[in-house]
Amino acid sequence: MQKPYVYVTRKLPEETLNALKEKAEVGMWPHEEKAVPREVLLKEAQKAEGLLTMLSDKVDGELLDNAPSLKVVANLAVGYDNIDIHKAKENNVTVCNTPDVLTDSTADLAFALILAAARRVVESANYVKEGKWNSWGPLLLAGADVHHKTIGIVGMGRIGEAVARRANGFDMNILYYNRNRKPDAERNLNAEYKDFYDLLKESDFVVCLAPLTAETKGMFNREAFQAMKKSAIFINAGRGASVDEEALVDALQNGIIAGAGLDVFEKEPIAVDHPFLTMNQVVALPHIGSASVETRMKMAELAGRNIAFVLDGKAAETPVS
């Protein structure tokens, strides 16, 4: 009996797909750092019963309506705004993501951005590498303290709570904004709920970890940045489209806020001539929130298991629809 066909849209370590290969014939785009072309994805989807996709792959109505055998799409991410969930449901296609396994790694990265932006780590490292360090000065590359400051977390999901746990280790005052109150977080993490603009006004570090929804798209706009302290540092490890980047550029160039640490952007990869890349007060990373070897291996294994389960007639481990 012929095995069902599954297409993987980015090169993954072969050993992460062992469970999937027992159930399916697996085709894989052979590049790790180059996205699968749209025409290749559409062609492969036409014959696939399963797709293992990245956030950069658009699984939209065009693809779904031309994939008659497709049963499951497993996204290698927590987010899934690249997938038309409603159309997938209409077409009886199960959609899965990879929550939980990347929570701590992403929280580590978010906190690394806080430290890097506050203490001017990247700027200082470049200062040494460029041969500019000729003597010591009392305020040479002096940044801002993180300990005992106020952190405002926008989006108190699993990753937000993990960031709050790290903030407790720095004796920070923790504020949060979320569409729903989180009494357990308030009790266990000493976090205080604030409405959005009160959080912006009171926080030294504003950390965006919100999912991308109609409500959160562009929520960090000119009005939001103007509400922040002039000394505030904005961190985004959530979704790039939550930010009006033109407004953020203006806020940074005009001293409305002090700095930013960004792992996600409206368009990825970010253009080499983007204004963010000219600013010393901006730490810009290539969307590496969950990019530890251990976590990425677990994500790939989970995505593979999800597809294998659905193809075997079982419920997916982590379905979103």
From TrEMBL:
<feature type="domain" description="D-isomer specific 2-hydroxyacid dehydrogenase NAD-binding">
    <location>
        <begin position="111"/>
        <end position="289"/>
    </location>
</feature>
<dbReference type="GO" id="GO:0051287">
    <property type="term" value="F:NAD binding"/>
</dbReference>
<dbReference type="Pfam" id="PF00389">
    <property type="entry name" value="2-Hacid_dh"/>
</dbReference>
<dbReference type="GO" id="GO:0016618">
    <property type="term" value="F:hydroxypyruvate reductase [NAD(P)H] activity"/>
</dbReference>
<feature type="domain" description="D-isomer specific 2-hydroxyacid dehydrogenase catalytic">
    <location>
        <begin position="6"/>
        <end position="320"/>
    </location>
</feature>
<keyword id="KW-0560">Oxidoreductase</keyword>
<dbReference type="InterPro" id="IPR036291">
    <property type="entry name" value="NAD(P)-bd_dom_sf"/>
</dbReference>
<comment type="similarity">
    <text>Belongs to the D-isomer specific 2-hydroxyacid dehydrogenase family.</text>
</comment>
<dbReference type="GO" id="GO:0005829">
    <property type="term" value="C:cytosol"/>
</dbReference>
<dbReference type="InterPro" id="IPR006139">
    <property type="entry name" value="D-isomer_2_OHA_DH_cat_dom"/>
</dbReference>
<dbReference type="GO" id="GO:0030267">
    <property type="term" value="F:glyoxylate reductase (NADPH) activity"/>
</dbReference>
<dbReference type="Pfam" id="PF02826">
    <property type="entry name" value="2-Hacid_dh_C"/>
</dbReference>
<dbReference type="InterPro" id="IPR006140">
    <property type="entry name" value="D-isomer_DH_NAD-bd"/>
</dbReference>
<dbReference type="InterPro" id="IPR050223">
    <property type="entry name" value="D-isomer_2-hydroxyacid_DH"/>
</dbReference>
<dbReference type="InterPro" id="IPR029752">
    <property type="entry name" value="D-isomer_DH_CS1"/>
</dbReference>
<protein>
    <submittedName>
        <fullName>D-glycerate dehydrogenase</fullName>
    </submittedName>
</protein>
